[in-house]
């Protein structure tokens, strides 16, 4: 299915089941297919599951602009309004989590019941004078330069670390290859823009304003979004946030730790 945003971009989404809506917002480079192990689980338990393909990703249009977090948040708002969704649970992974945070900052929580931030790129990744806990800029810039120089090589090198299989996580080579192919199918221009925008956005001022129930899930072996830079700090900024830190989990915990993630999310839904 498709809808058109106010700037004329045609975005794809998938919509399954009936019941209280859950909107899944994918990571940068990935699309709605990444939620293969979440959507059936929650549809079978009485939820309506909607997954968006960000512009430049999946089956959506590939415009030259709109890969900043504010536009991503506005695209998410356009989907929610297009479907006239209410009492929504927003589930965002990685950059998707950052877009969920921007949605709340820009559009409020009138339509939102709760949010889940999984492996989210929050609150502010780049190290600066007033953000000494961040990742040194030289490391971020070197990684971005390597991505620009040889994107397939960069992705292949990250693949094992993404799921932290070196720590014993049982993720098949076929699953790793499937995830890699999703990333390679994404617009190279979108990848460049998204990666730069997400590491340089400062959410610290707006996260304390989140008032809906929030669950944060992160792996302590996350190479892409180190937990001490991201989730631990985010949990301190969002009032009353429920925090789950998974031992030996990498960035791709939605696959490697899917049973625990799904059950923690189900318990969070049931508790509210």
From TrEMBL:
Q: Which residues form a coiled coil?
A: none
One GO molecular-function entry? hydrolase activity
Write down the Gene3D superfamilies for this protein, in alphabetical order.
Answer: alpha/beta hydrolase
User: Which InterPro entries does UniProt cross-reference here?
Assistant: AB_hydrolase_1, AB_hydrolase_fold, AB_hydrolase_sf
Residue ranges annotated for the AB hydrolase-1 domain, each copy included: 31-256
A Pfam family of the record is Abhydrolase_1
Q: Which UniProt keywords apply?
A: Hydrolase
Q: Does the keyword Metal-binding apply?
A: no
Q: Please give the superkingdom of this protein's source.
A: Bacteria
Protein name as it appears in the record: Alpha/beta fold hydrolase
Organism of origin is Nonomuraea indica
- Identify the taxonomic lineage of the organism of origin: Bacteria, Bacillati, Actinomycetota, Actinomycetes, Streptosporangiales
